[in-house]
Amino acid sequence: MAERVISSSNTQLQALVLNLLCNFFDRDLLYFQSITLLTYFKFDVWTNFNSFSFN
User: Helix, strand, or coil here: 28?
Assistant: First the structure.
C-alpha cells in the first residue's frame, strides 16, 4: 500500500518537473511531454495492477 502511494506521488512529481521544463523550452516539446506523461501514467497503472493481482 505504501509503495503504491510513493509510486503515485513520484508520477505527480515527474509530471510537475516535465511541466516546468516545458515552460522553459520551446512549445514544440508539449507533444513530447504529453507522450511522456501518458507513458508515466500507463506504467503507474500497470504497476498498481500487478501489485493488486499478486497480493
Answer: coil
